Amino acid sequence: GAVVSQHPSRVICKSGTSVKIECRSLDFQATTMFWYRQFPKKSLMLMATSNEGSKATYEQGVEKDKFLINHASLTLSTLTVTSAHPEDSSFYICSAIAPGGWNQPQHFGDGTRLSIL
Amino acid sequence: QKEVEQNSGPLSVPEGAIASLNCTYSDRVSQSFFWYRQYSGKSPELIMSIYSNGDKEDGRFTAQLNKASQYVSLLIRDSQPSDSATYLCAVNEEYGGSQGNLIFGKGTKLSVKP
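^ Those are the sequences you sent over. The predicted structure of the assembly is below.
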């Protein structure tokens, strides 16, 4: 149980393109999902917390107009990287809290490797 | 600033040995603790959750929690080369608007030599 699916797994596109990444909870409802970014050999960095039906909460230093988050249903959150540039190239990972309360573990999707040329 | 500290390693152990991974955390009120395994180029995978003082065993893995010392550890018995990965210690934010957020350590890289 508590399976999180993320799509696509890899994106290569030109600078200036907007890229949408989907995160789905397959077998449970997730009122809260999280978006992380990880650069090579670096730690996971929380970008934002996505709450179903409300605005996302962004971490300090993360541009909300650059990284658009939509959590329109209890099983789907999307992250759109707008007008992506080479410095946005990274590994983006979503997660959702397992059912049972906010103190349950987060389960992660497989991640999306974004490469901007 | 809440912090989770781990030795970055690399920790190298021979196949069949016990690997011991350690973690300390700064927030005394923390109640929920997790160990994740992350293979190179992959996303984190949950290994263990622990909420109470003492030991919790799951197969070859044992998590140990000591809230008084603010210390969490993970033991891997009979280590296998397939256990070679980075192990992330994570602590749950317990209050305020950030409930459910995880504070991650930087991870310990484990290498199991055949």
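Chain A has a mean pLDDT of 93. Chain A is about 0% helix and 50% strand.

Shout if you want it in another format.
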